[in-house]
Fold each of these.
Amino acid sequence: MKTLKIYANPFIAIKLANNKVVLLLLVSISFLIDAKAQSDILNQYVQEGLKNSQIIKQQQFSLQKAVYALEEAKALFKPNVSFNTTVSAAQGGRKIEIPVGDLVNPVYTTLNALTNSNKFPQISNTSEQLVPKDFYDLRFKTTMPILNAEIRYNQAIKKEQITVQQTEIQVYKRELVRDIKAAYFNYLKATEAVKVYENALKILQESERVNESLIKNGSANPTVLVRTRNEIAKIDAEISNAKGNQLNAAAYFNFLLNKDFSSNIVIENLNTSLLDLNLEDGHREELDKIQAGININKQLVGLSQSYKKLKVGASLDVGSQGRFAQIASADKNFFSPNAFVLVGVSFDLPVYSFGRNQLKVKQSEMDLAALDTQAQQVKNQLALQTEMAQNSLSSSKKVFESKASQISTAERYYRDMLRRYKEGNLSFIELLDAQTQITTAQLQQSISLYDVWLKWTDLERAKASYEIK
């Protein structure tokens, strides 16, 4: 009988039963195309998740809010125009007595005597209410800062806050890429577990068929059939549990893509030969975020020190004020004679505050020093994360290679045990043990394979190797 062995590399060795070996040098075009297709499938899922993520959309709104805050800060140096109107009416209050009659009546009396007439009547004294009875103040007020260091520092802070928000979006995108890939590999792991248990069920069903045949021939005790069916029931329960895990893994994966939980997922056939172990070191946005925080604190130090700097502002008031009773006159209105223009320039320079401002400066300087120390700690943490991810990937790859070799051993052992059982030279318990070894080896090999991919995903995240567009 001819046997065929195919080795997974560009050199394919075909070994015939007559020990003649023919080496064929093949350019593995199909293998490369398949690897690229597999990479494209997962990358398409990643891009779909980045596009549909609701959290990224929320953070985009926060970024736009930060941009608007910067525009608002810039507008503080521009003129501000407001319309103010005050209308007052009063009754009672203190009065000023004006002795008009006492002053002019003697003069009027003299004039009447000189002119021998009554052309100049006598008048009474009067009084004027201090609180205006009917008064209005209508004006357009324009104010504008000319020199103000606080506004300048505020602009710089708002600008750095935009950088912080941008880096937060990039950091979340990288986390989402890692989560999507990990969820996909966990789904494949759960799917493979279902296949392993279904394969174990087929083996047990084959054992059931063999036992039924042996019982009919009187070569086996009927109790072995009961034990076989009991094992089948156990595997059925494991299959149900594995399918539940598969559904949960699929639901979580689709959740990350913002899709219906029951959406179909394309399954890839992954192996460790597709791993890119030479991941390039990318740029960690966490460093940009903490640097932006340092820059903000530097501006806060400057802001707290700006109390020593002169503030200059200008104002312009254009309006009208007077009494409504006067406006009622035919020859008067809001503009004549009540209109006015008022121009002002203000200067503000603090002289002494009993050390409060200096203490604020010290507080800001301490915050800046703490952030500088934290920056170095973050760099060390990121370096440690990369080192640990690299070590975990190396160890998980070795575990996978070890588990892969155990499968062929377990399968060969089971075939030998099954042959001996059919010959009556082996107990059923020993055969069940061989079957369990196959199932365990297949599960461990499947778990170790996807653990390699999960560790690779962690390393890709630690190195920031995935290109975020």
Amino acid sequence: MDLTIRDARPGDAEGLATLIGQLGYPAAAEAVARRVERLRASEADRLVVAELDGALVGLAGLHISLSVEYDEPAAKLSAIVVDERHRRRGIGEALVAAMETEARRRGCRLIFLTTAESRETAHTFYHGIGFEETGRRFAKRLA
């Protein structure tokens, strides 16, 4: 198994669209390509992909933010998905490890994520790699 973690590129848009569709967020490849460009231009964000033997099989996004609560910045794992056909092979762990390394490099002492309550398999995965459940997320659509 030849697994490579690298920065996402606009040319990955079609594969990324498939992956985020598996998360429940369908999007056209053109829209994803624009999002990748915005993320690449942002100093607060990083988007990486996992390639297995040359095929795109996963993605992870990271967002770094400052807050009034902490001296150090915090890292949000903004997205993580591994293709349904390639799960339980260590790819998700490799993606999270890469994001943790990036967060530490940027001075973060905390990494967190949000997930839907219905994603019990994901919850088991997160617990298994050291994440603790610490609260709830509330969301409100703005027009």
Amino acid sequence: MSSYTPAGRLGDPNLQVINDPRLDARLVNLLKSFGMDKNEPGTQVTIDSPMEDITAMVARTEDLGAALYAGLPNELPGDDKEPKVDHSEVIIPGPDGNDIALHVFRTAGTSGETLPCVIYSHGGGMVNNSMINKPHVRWLTDLALAGVVAIGIDFRNAYTQAGHNPFPAGLNDCAAGVQYIAAHKADWGIDKIILQGESGGCNLAFATALKANKEGWIGSIDGVYGVVPYISNAYGWPRERLLRELPSCIENDGYFLSLKSMAVFGHYYTPDEKDKTNPLAWPYHATADDVKGLPPHYLLMDELDPLRDEGNSYYRKLGAAGVPVTAHVNLGTLHGSALLFRQALPEFHAAVVDSIAAFARRLPAHVGTHSRL
């Protein structure tokens, strides 16, 4: 009788992502063309390195990420024939004397209709990336074409050229944006609000809901749709603990994301020791009481993602606390595939966008606050 071999790098520590038999075949050539067919080795910088070294590493990652996002092919035949989507920018005051840009995407000709609103927070580990780049604009455009008003909150990243904005700066910007939009629903022709984000943006969507729950304005939020949650800050944990709690961190380490780099990003976002397990910074650590009374959630994870199991764990935590929650895991996909690989996986991209819009449409708009039974 043959012995069982665990999946991924649990079964073969030397396995490269390109040779993992679970990987969707349509991604193979794309990964090769971008030099992503080898496992991400991570950084030599650690959380114990001087902050100037950490900042330099984060800055390099910002530049590399911007180049990747600009170069990834995401156009499809027929894009030039799709209905027009209007994009406008609204500047609102932030909580620290800063300005926050809200990027509003709405299908042209729908200004007289009342539509659900999906408020989007972008990925990048709460540290890197920008709202207005090719994949994000395409994502917001497709959400608008699916029948919602899509609004991207251009929150402060922890890293900017102007300086370091650690937790809770980005979260406070997201909360301010949601509260502003909620106060202007009638003006903007929207009837309910759904928070949506991927990776670090999913962290901010979850954390905004937790913050609203704690502060008593959760009734402003009708639902949360989280994609590939980056929520644990577990990336420097001992191997034994990861195997016990979050085995996908070992199983898929280096598949587009590396634990070494994520540990440094986590430290840059939450340099203060007391915040490293703060649920508002890292929702994985939320208690049953923290999540009780939250609105319906939908979670989506990718099979070959180091972060898969923290999403699975949060799903179970929500369900155990009585929060209405649904989840699914996409087979054969890497972290963030729905957003990043639209051209290679067009049906998958469309299915996720449609799922978000359908989730938004079927939720009832709440009046008052959600119950904390």
